Amino acid sequence: MPNINFGGDRKVDAKKIWLVNQYAMPPVHERRFQTLKRAQYLSELGHQVTIISGSFLHNTDINLITNGDRYIEEEYDGIRFIYIKTNSYSTNGFRRVWNHLVFPIRFFRLFRKFEKPDVVCHLATVPFGNIIYFIAKRLKAKFIVDVVDLWPESFVTMGVVSKDNPLLKLAYWGERWLYERADKLVFSMEGGKDYIKEKGWDLDSGGSIDLSDVHYINNGVDVEEFDRFKYNHVFDDSDLQNDKNFNVIYIGSIRLANNIRKLVEAAEVLRDFRQIKFLIYGDGEDRQSLEQYCKAKGLDNVIFKQRWVESKYVPFILSHSSLNILNYFPNPIFRFGGSQSKSFQYMASAKPILCNLTMGYCPITKNSIGIAREFKDAHEYSEAILHFVNLSQADYAKICRNSRMLADSYDYKYLTGIFNSLL
Question: What is the pLDDT confidence band of residue 4, given thresholds at 50, 70 and 90?
């Protein structure tokens, strides 16, 4: 295969790469773009990339395989996809657990049907996804593990699983087992090495993981595409395009973990500031109750918008924001940093960010692009919003510039270059 240029005069051999992500979707449905963008830019470098995923599309009612086929192959914009048949589900119950098990087992039965790769990059799904390691081993391929969620740690810190649960030790064992067998371990949160050390899994702590094989590549944004979509895909919305408004925008899931009730309560405190509008885009099990709360309280400054917005319109929406919101429940897991995909779109929009969390390695505070800290109540949250409303034009413009400049550090093209150096 031909050589490709990387990093100036440096040359590396082009490779055949499998990106195994059970949740990867066709571009028209995708909302988590890391795998798709990595495939795109690795392909542009000259690599031969295949995305391997399950046929059921998470958080939808779409299954790409409804007949007896065991798998299908598709190509979108020059990127090859292989979809392994998996069952559909609508809740986080047994059928979703079964889906987690079915995907790696069926993939294991089928993998020899596909052209042998040089590299298998697996987006970790502990414990059932550990089966992917045996596929890479049998193929004698380099095995890279991508960690975008600290599981089961996140369940523990959220209180979903008790520390005394006997299955927890088994889950941690499965996580450690996978990490120890990776040739390279890539965390999307900057504190990945801290996590390994905290667990005592590194060499210095008596474990077997060499920290030199642990790397950090966060989620990101395609800056060039963001700008193109911003100008070419106008979203018609009179509230959004009202220049007299100070638009506080939240876009994303409206579920328990997103804690949108706190944002609504802050809006209630600010109800007399008529120029401040809270525009909420997204859906989830908490949306209906929050809409009912706003109606009961007469909060006409909180406007629930579309439940789902095509990704091509998101840049236009965010570029018409005055302040973008990241909103969550406080969780100790954030001491290792964050990897929220929308935060990088927020940066590209060149607008300030307000986050109701204190995070380790926080790009918001480190780069002066907004405020990120916990608020004790709705009044304190509302005061943080007013801080941006009352900024001088010069100070506000400086934050906007900082935000846009920072987006370049999370451009998918740049991040893929870092990943390429690990191959």
Answer: very low
280-319 tens-digit pLDDT = 999 999 999 999 999 999 999 999 999 999 999 999 999 9
Q: Tell me the C-alpha to C-alpha distance, in Å, between residue 282 and each of 265, 294, 326, 421.
A: 18, 16, 13, 37
Q: Facing residues of 73 across strands? A: 82
Whole-angstrom distance, CA of residue 71 vs CA of residue 3: 32
The predicted model scores a pTM of: 0.92
Backbone angles phi, psi at 152, to 5 degrees: -90, 5
Phi then psi for residue 322, to 5 deg, are -105, -25
Question: How many other CB atoms sit within 10 Å of the CB of residue 142?
Answer: 18
Q: What is the DSSP track for 60-112?
A: SS-BS--SS-SEEEEEETTEEEEEE-----SSSSHHHHHHHHHHHHHHHHHGG
Dihedral, 229, 232, 235, 241 alpha carbons, nearest 10: 100
The tokens for 140 are: 């004698």
Angle (nearest 5°) at CA 12 between 7 and 14 = 120
Contact 323, 249 (CB under 8 A): yes
| Chain mean position to CA 287 | 21
Rounded Cα gap, residues 4 and 47, in angstroms: 9
Question: Which residue has 């992917």 as its token pair?
Answer: 132
- In angstroms, the Cα distances linking 391 to 96, 272, 349 are 47, 19, 18
Written as one letter, the residue type at 335 is R
Strands across the sheet containing 276-281: 302-304, 276-281, 246-251, 323-326, 353-355, 370-372
Q: How many CB atoms lie within 10 A of CB 242?
A: 12
- What 3-state DSSP class applies to 150? coil
Length of the chain measured in residues = 423
In angstroms, the CA 366 to CA 362 distance is 6
For residues 248 and 279, give the distance between their C-alpha atoms in angstroms, rounded to a whole number: 6
Tens-digit pLDDT profile for residues 89-115: 988 889 999 999 999 999 999 999 999
For the stretch 369-404, pLDDT in tens is 999 999 999 999 999 999 999 999 999 999 999 999
302 sits in which H/E element: strand 302-304
Tokens of 38: 């990595």
